[in-house]
User: Fold these one by one.
Assistant:
Number 1:
Amino acid sequence: MKENFKKAVLLLGMSITIPTVSIAQENIETDISADLVSGYIWRGQDLGNVSIQPTLSVSYKGFSLSAWGSVGFEGKDTKELDLTLGYTIGGFSISVTDYWFDGGSGYFHYGSDNTNHTFEAQVGYDFGFLAVNWYTNFAGYDGVNNEGSRAYASYVSVTAPFKLGGLDWTAEICATPWANDFYNASEELHCNGSNGFAVSDISLQAGKDVKITRSFSVPVFAKLTWNPRTEGTYFVFGLNF
């Protein structure tokens, strides 16, 4: 979810470590972009079909505030709006995200039993050759365990970028560390979550810039995802503008 935000955080962290670029961080920087994807797959879960996913972000001296959304072409697809406040220094990053989905309570409903918001905290470190991130839901709709108690559903991700055959690749493996029904729940695939530690996303993504004219190119990517817990397999193609 928020691939553009992750890219922005990485670039921001790199700029802090390079003196000639860090001068630019004295000014507020803004960015706007959008992805067009053949399917909305997030953390090993199928959340929709063909979708437009816009991003708007503002950053200043390591701090960033971004808005990310997803709107499917089909009326049945869930609409989503995510707001993220983050801070990055070197390879270290920390953030808090408010995820909101339509189809239930209105946007300004925040009660524990009457909300479509999920609040998540993230902490991670990017070593360059490997990035590790931990995510935990701490408020709103955050999932329950097998006993029906609050689960504080969590997710850990390990990603490794590399180059091969002229393309930029990213390999990723992710897991949920304990029982919850927030991740890996699928009626279609007859899975109601995880009973404990479960690998829930093994993926491989490749991307490159496709030149349209001499001065204009469009980044494209393809991503193959397998969820061992639900046995779901997905292949997505996307364009970034």
Number 2:
Amino acid sequence: MKAELKWAGNKAYAYTTNSGFEGFLDGAAKDSDDAKGPSPMEMILCGLGGCTSYDVVNILKKSRQDIVDCKTELEAERADTVPSVFTKIHIHFTVSGRNLKESQVERAVKLSAEKYCSASLMLERGGVEITHSHTIVELP
């Protein structure tokens, strides 16, 4: 896996991934109206969300659950001192579908957190406290 970043002025960097995706990261995202993209820490949070969401949906599909949608919300706390690393992250899944079993959703979240999500495991090993919750929305 590779990525390349090129300074795009001020606090912004254009990135290209080895899979051909391009975008911008911008350290000014939180304090500028002309920011070109999310901050690097926001991207880490989104990466975690994508990693664990992929796992949960995939595990539920393999468990033959009739999943229609999965929304994942993440809320993070950061240290007050530099480096202002993540200290706590809470992940909440809203899983929608038909006849979803509570036990299967709990199992999927747990398996992602403890076995499959490399982003989650890496952050936890780095000292980040990660908690999880979920809601099931029953569809007709």
